Amino acid sequence: MIASAARIRQQRLPYLLLLPAGIFLAVFFLVPLGEVVWLSVSEPRLSLANYTGLLTDTLYARVLVNTFVTALTVTLACLLLGYPLAYAIARTGGVFGTVLVSIVAMSFWTSFLVRTYAWMVILGNRGPVVAALKALGWDPPPLLLFTRFSSVLAMVHILAPFMIMALYAVMKKIDPAVLRAAASLGGKPLGIFRHVFLPLSAPGIVSGSTLVFVICLGFYVTPVLIGSPRELMIAGLIGDQMEQFLAFGPASAMALVLLAATLGVLAVYNRFFGLDRLWG
Length: 280
Hints:
- This protein is mostly helical.
- The protein folds into two domains: about 40 residues, no CATH class; about 220 residues, MetI-like (MetI-like fold, Orthogonal Bundle).
- Helix content is about 80%, strand content about 0%.
């Protein structure tokens, strides 16, 4: 009997340890999520009109497409810029590699809002980029701020560290002996990279791309502050609906559509790779 009671307590221990986290999630996630679901079908009246409006209104469709296109563009840009840097960090190692990793990690200590305002100064009419273009004879210079270009550029700068760290985590695990074995068999550097290193680093590419894409889908601060008002992303449209029109019902419906899209991306990733490998 004593052994049985001890075994029961041991089996209950993991659930007791999870209880505080479960209560926290229920209070601060499930309850607000339930409120959003209720608002989406009850405001301004009890119906599914908010969801049918999303399916029939071309504005919502255009914003949703623009959100996915922007997220895909930012993800590809982060991959093209982050892969060489992650490769250099992983292959170099030593003090130089440690310094590069530290520089990338320190970017997480700076607020998204601070970095966004920094880009507003850099790309503004009195910023260094416009001044350089004028000095080169481009007068009047092109409008850089409050465009899709400025929004994508700032988001790439903000999200690139997520891609780099995800790639680095996988690249660091690649055994150098495998690369030396390929070289001993007559492989050229480019061929070794293409046929050995690149396939082995593919999980990092998938993980980093998924992470950046999902974060970018719900990005709010940067697109709203320096993006084009004619090319809204869905998070910005949700904010406008709530702040300017007090349309909590349509905003809640859009938020749930965005949540469903995000969960769909994560479900596909989990189906083929597993969420436990998202960070490499």
